[in-house]
Fold this sequence. Notes:
Elements: H1 2-26, H2 41-46, H3 48-51, E1 55-68, E2 71-77, E3 82-88, H4 94-103, E4 109-118, E5 124-135, H5 151-156, H6 158-164, H7 166-185, H8 207-212
Parallel strand pairs: 3-5
Antiparallel strand pairs: 1-2, 1-4, 2-3, 4-5
Amino acid sequence: MAEKLFMIREDIQQTKLEKLARIREYGMDPYPEKSERNFRNANASEKFEEFAGRVITLAGRVRSMRPMGGSAFANIEDESGKMQLFLNKANMPEELFLLFTKNVELGDFVQVTGELFLTKTEEKSLKVIDWKMLSKNIRPIPTEHFGIKDEEELLRKRYLDLMTNPETRELFRKKNIFWQTFWLVMDFWKCKTQCLNTRLAELMLSRSQLITMPLTKIFICAFHLNWH
């Protein structure tokens, strides 16, 4: 049974890798260095009347997909909330439309450009005229509807808990604010390496400086570079 489950997971990942390859074949970078957005999703929703009909750019993680022939609906989520997307062949090149509907999946991060409008059910949505992949997910994630019911799984994989539960994200945000305030009040220093950078990473402090400084003045929260 365990061997069968492993094969299923391997098959799912292989399908995702094939979709990743198709995105690259189209000429789109699935992990670009830069991204853009004009507003957060919540801002676009709150100022809908002001921005309606105006071309804006949003970004977020795909949380649901509903392809319907020549059209498709999707929901993206950022740190502020969700926004519904409407895609149609008439609003963009057909190849770009098909690239989205056939290769974008739950968990992918996308950047979308379009106009805000109200659907027939009066739901605030973005009519997409252009999009690009920001980060292609190559591992299966829990669906928005079912989530994760196993509490032990949530404790072992905190990233899934943060991804699927808004309450956990809010608690994480509050804890982060607390510790940042604590570091500031206690005069702690934070040292980190810019590991997610296309340029050569440079340490904020040299090794010799760190060694000679009092430990009470140094608080290293993340350090991913081995000294040699």
